[in-house]
Amino acid sequence: MIDLEYKGISTIEIMNYVSPDVVTLGNHDFEYGLVHLLFLEKLATFPIVNANLYITKYHRRLMKPYHILKLGGRDILFIGIITEEVLKAFKKDSQVSSMISLEDACAEVGKICNAYKDTDIDLTVLLTHIGFEADKQLAAMLKPEWGVDMIIGGHSHTVLEKPAKVNGILIAQAGVGSKQIGRFDLVVDDDTNRIIAWQWQLVPIDDSTTEPDMELQRFIDSFKEVVDRKYNTMLCRFEQPLTHPSQSEETALGNLFADILAQRAQVEVMFFASFAIRGTILGPLVTLGDFRTRLPYDDGLLKFTVTGAQLKQMFSHILRPDVRAGKGYFFNVNRGIKAIYDDTRQELVSLAVNNQPIQDETFYTICIQEYHYEDNAKHFGLPPETLTMIQPLQVVTTSMKDVLEEYLQTHQNLNSVVEGRLQFLR
């Protein structure tokens, strides 16, 4: 809540206090927009590196692509690489693009190594935010001549007891947050500038390893006091705690939000992305802070008219087994929907709205989050232009968070359950 309230300024101030040697960008750094990101970058007293985010028209990098750090008598070259998800934050800004494929990222690393790496560079480290599996794929693509020694990654929150090694490159992650940090102890050959021995360990950050910094705690508390006064107010009360244990299955909390948004949009089908909810439980007492923490990122809602055949195609796409395995977005849907999908045959068996089977030639109104519109083919299996063939898109609201917050504030003792809106035959 502190970061949301201060739009990242508090985080930058805390990081300035901690004073890291070098930092790279992650996908959440882009959530307050391009202008605010550049403002935060100017506030930072530490270097922030990213090599593959560009101002499209001028083919100019948005950030400093690399930083050379002198540590232990050695010059270490750090290069930053970002995840593909950053593009979503700039979907309305045609001035910004990203070299986001692994092939493009590989080329950017090679460009920097070829241009700046010389005999004075002892080690080359990639700071990435593309996930552990992508880190391994990227390492396999890098040319040995570029001399990349190590990848320190993020985004997938992977905790590694032992680093991976691909193409001679060490790959490490240390999970998420500040529960632990990763530590490398390296032995480097002075003649070849290559790592010849190493030791890795995950160091927990607790009272057993370090003493609390009371000045830093007071600094953080100064933000917390302001936020607590604002957000510890009661928003509503549920009949019982509503759970959201997984982002790949129907949940009670996901159902409630889908029902509220469907009512506001006056549509027959509301697709509410399960990943939009953070946390596994909300209520029974819901404070403003609780709500905004569970739904930290806002989005607009768009309304469309599609045929029954197109609606079946959308459901067939979002209910695929690989979506539930984490290779796509799972959606909660509103009351009145019943979809049955056969995992063995990998096909939609039946689809009904308000107990009426979907008819291919009949028109149906649907609502999706704006985030999913431009990349609709990926999320729902239909090109965006397909959604506007019958009727132009209608903007229901520019803030689904406002809709949900207002509804909860004016409705008490709400309840919701998992009722089999989406069923799977195995």
Q: Can you walk me through this structure?
A:
This protein has 426 residues and is of the alpha/beta class. It folds into two domains: 2-204, Purple Acid Phosphatase, chain A, domain 2 (4-Layer Sandwich), CATH 3.60.21.10; 234-425, 5'-nucleotidase,  domain 2. The protein has helices at residues 2-6, 9-18, 34-43, 86-89, 102-116, 132-141, 214-231, 252-265, 288-294, 308-318, 321-324, 376-380, 400-410, and strands spanning 23-24, 48-49, 53-55, 60-61, 66-71, 74-81, 96-98, 123-128, 150-152, 164-166, 169-172, 180-189, 194-204, 234-237, 242-243, 269-273, 281-282, 285-287, 301-307, 331-333, 337-342, 347-353, 356-357, 363-369, 394-397, 422-425. Strands 5-6-8-9-11-10 form a six-stranded mixed beta sheet, covered by helices on one side. The chain starts with a helix and ends with a strand.
Give me the secondary-structure topology.
Elements: H1 2-6, H2 9-18, E1 23-24, H3 34-43, E2 48-49, E3 53-55, E4 60-61, E5 66-71, E6 74-81, H4 86-89, E7 96-98, H5 102-116, E8 123-128, H6 132-141, E9 150-152, E10 164-166, E11 169-172, E12 180-189, E13 194-204, H7 214-231, E14 234-237, E15 242-243, H8 252-265, E16 269-273, E17 281-282, E18 285-287, H9 288-294, E19 301-307, H10 308-318, H11 321-324, E20 331-333, E21 337-342, E22 347-353, E23 356-357, E24 363-369, H12 376-380, E25 394-397, H13 400-410, E26 422-425
Parallel strand pairs: 1-2, 6-8, 8-9, 9-11, 16-24, 21-26
Antiparallel strand pairs: 3-4, 3-7, 5-6, 10-11, 12-13, 14-18, 15-17, 16-20, 19-24, 19-25, 21-22, 22-23
